[in-house]
UniProtKB/TrEMBL annotation:
Disordered: annotated segments: 1-20
Highest taxon listed in the record's lineage: Archaea
Native source organism of the sequence: Methanosarcina mazei
Alphabetized SMART domains for the sequence: PAC
Domain PAS: 205-242
Top EC class of this enzyme: transferase
This protein's UniProt keywords: Kinase, Phosphoprotein, Transferase
Pfam families the record matches: GAF_2, PAS_3
Catalytic reaction equation(s): ATP + protein L-histidine = ADP + protein N-phospho-L-histidine
Protein name: histidine kinase
Length: 588
């Protein structure tokens, strides 16, 4: 499964063995560790720090990029698909310098690389960024990848220009949170906020994590006395208003007694009764920014690095035994997104192999067996599973293979992520591409209509459809092609007068996805035809509605939004082929 996400090696090394998971307090600790790991992942994906994993190839193609690359206008797919190489977006005058400096660090045998340079956003704007990367080498010392973080520092550069002096490069998030300037805390809702968790990089303030975890130091005690009451008051007001987050700037004392300005962003956790139980947050040293504010004699907008911390994600964590059908020893609570409970698996009532789509299980078994046989450390694969209500979902699994001291595989630790929408989006794009090619190769209207219907009916949620075109001579709209409908139903809906409710709705130029759109007589026919969901997409050409694409389902009760977007895109695509030749066609 070759998960090359930055920091993943640290994560897998902190997993306990099976005895720890199986037993009492250590099992609880393992569960808590997983939740914290998911919280850290969320911090990265919701910060301004973009995480990359680049191949050591020309222009550095990306194997992984965090979702917040959208801050630069790009999508994850732009990079992962290879459509955009990272070197393509670096400002041309900086590209050689970046390559030369990186090569110098590699030849020195350095473990990392750091540099400031310019990139182009997708909109073509120039942005200054700070990159810090780890240089990955294989066992022979050959550089294979670079894993790093990219932070937009354009605003800081503008401040430097105003002050006419250089500022030291800001420390930014690296692949793992413990190398970040943002210190992560989990505080109890008690006097002075005792900490139950603090990341190791608290050392930047002179403290150790154990100083706080042991309760030897309470967090409230390191806040400057002149700021403490204000912070307490602000937090209490946020709690009383029922707000979910808290944000404040104040001073803290380092262990050496120095004053540092920090920015705190915190998520207020409540139980089922609405009572506050604890606070999850990050504390970021903003002393350099405060110095800039003082030099410029004005306030700068607080730099947004991290958003509210949450302890859940779309990635479901598993610990499987290496036995038949992979019994589950641990699964995270967000398994509910697939319609199951934790108890379903941990009780043994459901084995993981039971939910794998039967046509995929053999290929999974063979790929996993090959990874074990070749003594690989990880396994990665996309396949289908069945949800609790027996729907089929595509998932991506990334797993670490656990072995005992005899090199025998005992467990698999991994995450499973729902990638159905990603798969469906790719499928829809491919359908549109193929349809465009096919329509370009014919001038026969009926052939075009058949191609359109056949293409749209490849979508799982759609199993019937028809195309109506406007008949100027008869002042009506006619059904000119159809699929998946009974002959009796087709006979009754073959044409609509221009003043009928159905035709009037088409002329409004707005798509319709409700059965209530139809008149009572038509609604009765739809029920008899056992149609449960509809989509009526007007086709507009040069300001005139020339007809509509009509689709239906006998299996779902609503057309999903991604399918709606696909159908509306199809309507825009095909009308330019249909319109020029529809008047010449013999529809009947």
């Amino acid at each position: 499964m070759n998960d090359k996400n930055a920091g993943y090696e640290e994560k897998k090394n902190r997993y306990p063995d099976s005895a720890d998971v199986a037993g009492g307090e250590r099992g609880k600790a393992f569960h808590a560790a997983l939740e914290r790991e998911e919280a850290l992942k969320t911090i990265i994906n919701n910060s301004q720090v973009v995480v990359f994993l680049w191949k050591n190839e020309e222009k550095w193609p990306a194997e992984f990029v965090s979702e917040n690359v959208v801050n630069f206008g790009y999508t994850v797919e732009d990079f992962i698909s290879g459509r955009v190489l990272y070197g393509d977006i670096i400002y041309p005058e900086d590209l050689n310098k970046v390559g030369e400096e990186l090569q110098k660090r590699i030849l020195m045998g350095a473990p990392d690389f750091s540099m400031e340079y310019r990139i182009f956003s997708k909109a073509g704007k120039i942005r200054w960024v700070n990159e810090r990367s780890f240089i990955e080498r294989d066992q022979e010392g050959k550089v294979t990848h670079f894993q790093g973080v990219v932070l937009d520092i354009t605003e800081r550069k503008r401040s430097e220009e105003k002050l006419k002096k250089a500022l030291e490069m800001q420390k930014v998030l690296t692949a793992v949170i413990n190398n970040s300037p943002a210190v992560v805390f989990l505080w109890k809702n008690e006097k002075y906020w005792p900490a139950t968790f603090v990341s190791d990089n608290i050392v930047q303030f002179g403290y150790t994590a154990s100083d706080f975890i042991s309760q030897g130091i309470l967090y409230g005690k390191i806040i400057h006395p002149d700021d403490l009451k204000r912070v307490e008051g602000e937090l209490e007001r946020h709690i009383q208003k029922g707000e979910v987050s808290f944000n404040s700037e104040y001073r803290i004392l380092t262990k050496a007694g120095d004053l540092r300005w920090v920015n705190e962003k915190t998520f207020i956790q409540r139980d089922g009764n609405g009572s506050v139980t604890c606070f999850q947050g990050i504390v970021l040293d903003i002393t350099p920014r405060k110095k800039i504010e003082e030099a410029l004699r004005k306030s700068l907008e607080m730099q947004k690095l991290l958003k509210t911390i949450v302890n859940k994600s779309s990635a479901v964590a598993f610990l499987w035994k290496n036995t038949e059908n992979w019994p589950v020893e641990f699964v995270s609570e967000n398994i509910t997104q697939f319609g199951y409970s934790v108890e379903d698996f941990t009780s043994g009532k459901i084995l993981y192999g039971d939910i794998i789509y039967k046509e995929d299980i053999n290929s999974i078994f063979e790929s996993l067996a090959r990874a074990v046989r070749e003594e690989l450390d990880s396994f990665e694969m996309e396949y289908r599973i069945l949800t609790g209500d027996r729907n089929v979902r595509w998932v991506e699994e990334r797993t670490y293979i656990q072995r005992d001291n005899k090199n025998t595989v005992t467990h698999f630790q991994g995450i499973v992520v729902d990638v159905t929408e990603r798969k469906e989006a790719r499928e829809m794009l491919e359908i549109q591409r193929e349809l465009s090619i096919a329509l370009s190769s014919t001038w026969n209207l009926q052939a075009m209509l058949n191609l359109i219907l056949d293409s749209c009916l490849k979508i799982r949620e759609i199993d019937a459809g028809g195309i109506y075109l406007k008949d100027e001579l008869l002042d009506q709209i006619n059904l000119v092609a159809h699929r998946g409908l009974s002959s009796d139903f087709v006979e009754k809906i073959y044409a609509y007068r221009a003043d009928s409710p159905e035709a009037k709705q088409v002329w409004t130029e707005k798509p319709v996805y409700k059965l209530s759109f139809f008149a009572e007589e038509m609604a009765g026919m739809l029920r008899k035809e056992k149609i449960t969901a509809v989509a009526v997409i007007p086709m507009k050409h040069r300001g005139e509605v020339i007809g509509s694409l009509n689709f239906a389902s006998h299996t779902v009760d609503r057309i999903p939004h991604n399918v709606r977007n696909f159908l509306e895109s199809i309507a825009l695509q095909v009308v330019n082929y249909i319109a020029p030749i529809r008047i010449e066609a013999d529809f009947i």
